[in-house]
Amino acid sequence: MSDLVSPSKQLPVTTESRAAWLREAGGLSAAFADGLVAHARCIARRVAQWQCGHVSSVAARAVLSESATEHATGAGVAETRDAAAICERLVAALAGPLTPAKSAWLEQAARKKAEWAALRDARAGGPRCFDAVWRREVLTQPQAIAIAERFCREIGARKFFDAGDVQANGFQVIRDDSPGETYTESGASYMGFAVSALLSQAIARQGCYGIAFTGDGSFMMNPQILIDGIEHGVHGTILLLDNRRMAAISSLQEAQFDTDYRTNDSVAVDYVAMAGAVAGVIALSAGDTERGLRDALAKAHAHPGLSLIHVPVYYGADPAGGMGAYGRWNVGPWSDGVQDAYTKTRI
Q: Is the pTM of this model over 0.90?
C-alpha cells in the first residue's frame, strides 16, 4: 500500500469507476499509472483482464480493489469498504509538497487534457459525413450527442446513456458540471438500460424530465418502453441514434482484425412509424442537420408524455465520424495484439 501512495512516484494512482469503463483503457492514467484503485463491483469485468479477455492498466504493478477478485487472483489487496471513504484516505495519503515529479506529471497531464479538449471540440463541431448506408451526409454521433447535451443543459434535463457506441461516444463528449446530470448502466453492457431508466421518472416522488440516448440495437432490446411509458405517465424523450449496426463491436473488430463481421444487417426499420403507432407517443424525425435536431428536441420537450426522436448517424472509416474505440478486448477470436499486451502486464 505504501508503494501505491508514495509521493515520490512519477505517475499517480488511477482511480477507476465502472461508469468510465469503456474509456478507461484508452486514458493517459490507465496507460501509464503504476498503481490501480478499482472501484468496480462488476466482478466479471475485472476478471476479464485476468482471463485474457480484456487488458487495461498495463503499467500497473499493484492493485487496491473494493472486491476480493484481484486479491483472490493474487493481483493486489482487497478493501471491502465504501468507495468514498477509500478515496478520502487516498487523497490524504497522496497530499504533500509539490515535488518535481508531481510537477512534471501535472504538466504532462495538462498538455494531454488540452489536446483532448481540442479533439473533442473538433469531432463534436465538425462537418457532417457522407454515410454509405444512408446514402447522404448525416450527423455523426459526437455531433448529435453534443447538440442534445447542450439542449439538456439549457432545460435542466437528466441524461441516460445506453450501452454500446452511443455510450462510448457520450462518455467522451458530455461536459457535466456536477454529479447526477448523467446516468449510465456503468459499462455493464445492459442494452436497453437508458430507455428503461426513463420509467423511473414516472414513479419517482419528484421526477425530472429526461432524455434517453440510445442506439438502434439497444432500443430494440426494450421497445416495450413505448407502451410502459404511456401507461405510467413518463415525460421524457428517447433519442434514437441509428447507424444500422452494432457500432461498438464493429469498431473493436476493425481495430483488432481490420474488418468487421456480422455486426450489421440489411433490414431497414421505420422507427418513427413504429413509435407513432403507440397512442400517446409523439414520434419525430430530426433529419440530418443541427437545426432539425434542435427543433425536434424542443417539440419533444413540449409534449407532456413520451417522445421518440429518430436521428440517422454516420458509421464508417472517417476518423471524424466518432470519438474512437479505446480498448484492448478479444472480440470473437483472440486477437494477437490483445494477447501480446496481456503478456506484458505486470499484474
A: no
